[in-house]
Amino acid sequence: MSEAGPAGTGSEAGSEAPGFVIVGAGECGTRAALALREAGYDGPVTLVGTEIHTPYERPPLSKDAIAADMPEPKTIGGADGLAERGIVFRPGVTVVSLDRAAQVVVLSDGTRLAYHRLLLATGARPRALPVPGIDGPNVATLRGLEDAARIRAALGPGRRLAVIGGGFIGLELAASARRLGTEVTVIEALPRLLSRGVPEEVAGILAARHEAEGVRLIFGARIVEVTGDGVALEGGITVPADLVLVGIGAVPETALAEAAGLAIDNGIAVDDRLATSDPAIFAAGDCAAFLHPGYGRRIRLESWRSAQEQGTLAARNMLGAEQPVSAVPWFWSDQYDLTLQIAGLAEGSITTVRRPVGEGFVLFHLGPEGRLLAASGVGPGNAVAKDIRLAEMLIARGAHPDPEALATVPNLKKLLSA
Amino acid sequence: MAWIRACSADDIDEEDVARFDHDGRTFAIYHSPDGEFFATDGLCTHEQIHLADGLVLDNIIECPKHNGRFDYRTGEAKGAPVCVDLNTYKVKVEDGEVFVDV
Ligand SMILES: Cc1cc2nc3c(=O)[nH]c(=O)nc-3n(C[C@H](O)[C@H](O)[C@H](O)COP(=O)(O)OP(=O)(O)OC[C@H]3O[C@@H](n4cnc5c(N)ncnc54)[C@H](O)[C@@H]3O)c2cc1C
Ligand code: FES
């Protein structure tokens, strides 16, 4: 398909009809660009990204890029994948404004770029912690390659890391920092780790493992300030640290959309086809809150696989496919040799069924009338992967599996044909 | 090239996979839903992850780590995040024993 927009809508290149412009060269935007080509579109595609790098995978940044000194980041779609497919990639360039009436975006280098369809894949940025001293030179957040390089350089034997926030990125970094011999303290405001979206039993396994590995966990902490010596807590405790990592979640990057008057709802608001309130503009990935037909409301995910799936779906829908979102949310995290995987959203669950799997276990979360809503598993290596994947398929079907079978059937695949 | 015995045909259920290590290399042996056997490299081409921990659905093996998918009959990578194909190896079954041409 090579549909083009109305000729000359503000295009200063003039000769070529405006094609697809993608804002943000992360997991989602890059996958979207590749997917446009996979779907057979051979018109102009421009991928604009603030970062100067060839698009790379973010998940290793808290894992092997720290713990195993991964020399080169893993690129998305191969080092030359974009060029080989005739995708114009503009690294180190930010889209600074969006003129919806003219269907033009303005880039930080002054270029005006006309679009027929625009995809906003601007991702998320680390949430800021409003305490005194937070802008000090010993404070870091982790989102990009430069952050990871800087953090890694500050870790090692004899160094002390304080992680503010017992969420995924902080805990993964804590594990990686321990691998390098760093002294690590995790400071959490709530009474337990991973209180958002992870069942208590699973979080408990991870907490126990961190403690066994020598990480100090402080719960219910109130931070007074960050100083050159570390983190001062209410009650007079100071956690000494050479580096303070703030990992208290991420906020969607919506400024461009907001300034252009697009609807916002904890992220750029899109429908079940990932279209924004302007039908020429789509949004996907960490920046987007999308209407999930399976939940009947908008959700925003910060998940690598969702970013890929949404990028691919947005590309197809920008070409007119009209396909609704259907994927079940899925997430994983690696800490030490433990892998956690979660499929679905557990909220609204009434009962939990536990299934031992090797040295790990899977919890199935069942809702009203026994419908399977989510599954969370943790174990060494990939012990729980198969069962989580099968659970994901059951969730997608709206299955009401027999709880007894979930707990004990030797092969969960049997339940798929039930 | 040499035929090496990997396992008994009974060791792998239909629509399932098993790991086979030989001479410092690792392979994945598949038993397809229609009863045929296939073999590929044992590790995913995205990261070094054993595919035998993954799920077999029809002719697809899904990597357990990030769900990269391959057609195990041809080794073809079926989309993100995997883009490099797997090597495949010839398999024969004799007297209920599975042999791989490594
Ligand atoms: C350290 C770390 C570890 C993670 N580990 C896991 C994990 O184990 N499992 C998991 O499921 N998920 C993980 N994630 C989350 C996953 O990486 C994200 O969900 C995914 O990267 C989201 O993709 P995205 O393209 O939506 O956003 P991003 O990857 O953030 O990409 C957005 C890009 O847009 C650019 N941009 C923003 N605004 C503009 C603009 N105006 N103009 C041009 N460019 C712009 C940004 O610079 C950025 O490069 C991790 C994330 C991090 C940071
Ligand atoms: S390791 Fe196989 S898909 Fe990533």
Automatic annotation (TrEMBL), chain A:
Q: Which cofactors is this protein said to need?
A: FAD
Q: Where is the FAD/NAD(P)-binding domain?
A: 21-311
Would you tell me the Gene Ontology cellular component terms? cytoplasm
The EC number of this protein is 1.18.1.3
Enzyme class, one word?
oxidoreductase
User: Where is the Reductase C-terminal domain positioned along the sequence?
Assistant: 330-415
Is Coiled coil tagged as a keyword?
no
- MF-aspect GO terms: dioxygenase activity; ferredoxin-NAD+ reductase activity; oxidoreductase activity, acting on NAD(P)H
Q: Pfam families, alphabetically?
A: Pyr_redox_2, Reductase_C
Keywords tagged on the record: Dioxygenase, FAD, Flavoprotein, Oxidoreductase
Q: Which domain of life is it from?
A: Bacteria
Q: Which InterPro entries match?
A: FAD-oxidoreductase/Apoptosis, FAD/NAD-bd_sf, FAD/NAD-binding_dom, FAD/NAD-linked_Rdtase_dimer_sf, Reductase_C
What SUPFAM superfamilies does this protein map onto?
Answer: FAD/NAD(P)-binding domain (SSF51905), FAD/NAD-linked reductases, dimerisation (C-terminal) domain (SSF55424)
Q: What protein is this chain from?
A: 3-phenylpropionate/trans-cinnamate dioxygenase ferredoxin reductase subunit
Source organism phylogeny: Bacteria, Pseudomonadati, Pseudomonadota, Alphaproteobacteria, Rhodobacterales
UniProtKB/TrEMBL annotation, chain B:
Stored InterPro entries: MocE_2FeS, Rieske_2Fe-2S, Rieske_2Fe-2S_sf
Annotated Pfam families: Rieske
Which cofactors is this protein said to need? [2Fe-2S] cluster
Under the heading PROSITE patterns, the entry gives: RIESKE
The record places domain Rieske at 4-100
For this chain, the family text in UniProt reads: Belongs to the bacterial ring-hydroxylating dioxygenase ferredoxin component family.
> What protein am I looking at?
3-phenylpropionate/trans-cinnamate dioxygenase ferredoxin subunit
